[in-house]
Amino acid sequence: xxxxxxxxxxxxxxxxxxxxxxIRPDLGPCWIWAGGRDGGYGRFRLRLLGERSAHRIAWIxxxxxxxxxxxxxxxxxxxxxxxxxxHLHVGTNRQNIEERHSRGRSARGDRSGARLHPEKWHxxxxxxxxxxxxxxxxxxxxxxxKLTEDAVRDIRRRRAEGETLRSIAADHNVNLTxxxxxxxxxxxxxxx
Length: 192
Hints:
The protein is an alpha+beta fold. The chain is built from eight helices and seven strands, in the order αβββββαββαααααα. The strands form three sheets. A three-stranded antiparallel beta sheet has the order 3-4-5. A two-stranded antiparallel sheet has the order 1-2. A two-stranded antiparallel ribbon has the order 6-7.
């Protein structure tokens, strides 16, 4: 497993449940990694290669080195712990992202991490979140926010009543673009 120093290919193949779920009938059952995992993907330390994702090791043992032009090992079955070589294919990061989107695996809207686990989303003022703005808290919980949800509702109400963007922006001490995005629901989408 991951802590041992000299695992062999035989050790690798011994950590697999060969009759896993059938995600896609045209592919047959997945071979599920039964060893250690990290984020759903298997992990294994193989002599000469070091510790790697189990599906990447499966590809290397079955087909040889992963080509530099296609450095990602992707799953046809969309099952992260699967290590069945014929369920795997190599591709680029762009192909990986395109497959994720086309197969509906991108967490958006109510499936996004911010909505599923709001307690894990920090205020927007720590170093990590400045490097990853997509992880910043929304609305009032964002440490950089000048507005409250009540202010956003006021902006939308006043604009619906015909007041100018300039007048609303001045009253709330924000710029015209901010008010426009709120009115058009391009920002503060979660406020109704």
